[in-house]
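Forgive a beginner's question, but might I ask you for the amino acids of a protein and the tokens describing how it folds?
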Amino acid sequence: MSKIAIVTDSTCDLPNKVVKEKNITVIPLNVHFGEETFLDGIDIKSDTFFEKLSSSEIHPQTSQPSVGRFVEAYEKLLKTHDSIISVHISGKLSATYSSALQAQKEIGNDNVKVIDSMNGTLGLGAIIYKLAELNQEGKSFENIVEEAKKIIPNAKFMGLVPTLEYLAKGGRIGKAREFIGSLLKIKPILGAVDGEIQSVGKARTLVKGMDFIVEELKNHNIKTLFIVHANHSERANLLKDKASEVVDSKNIIIAEFGPVVGTHLGPGAFGVGFLSSE
């Protein structure tokens, strides 16, 4: 049986426990605070990052992993694996996919397949989780690549941010820009649509936003639900309680937004990611 490595990037926001259990390789993006550069999730963890985000006068910037970092990771994995399936944040949100693709071309190995998830955070994480399960079940390289193509359109992410300030600063506002400057106290519910961040709903309060998300979950058949938060476990736990009406609580995994995604969403954000099998 051939040995396959499943690779993604740190914007997947999967908990470390899941990454280890599912044998997933995560390539970190970069977070820049002025002259300081940190590897996402390695040099700086979520709790430290959000403290720094709140106290620093400098708004951080993010950047994709270098082509060289991908080349190094792929070459190392190919010493112990026959092939690699590398799935990444939407190319419309980050140049990470482009770096991975360039690295594959430099290596020139057709057993390295690079895929654009057209998603991010736990939308991407849900895809990777499923592919890693298939890998552990012993599915072939071809089967897993084919399955990835099938499930990418069914990967969903919905989230709510207390303010659009951070998305605007980071230039990731996409088609949700219509909410900026709104005089109404409306909380936009954001989702990944066609690889971009778009508004998929709105609510007057964060709790009503949670109710909107839970109602939306009822339209889907969900095996595993990921709930993700930005330094606000109370909101995550409240959302878990509400979502347990729809998904068995044993199949709900709580995660934290990592520093790169946190840069763009800001503290207090929360959301859900899942694969829909409608």
Notes: The mean pLDDT is 92. The first strand starts at residue 4 and ends at 9.
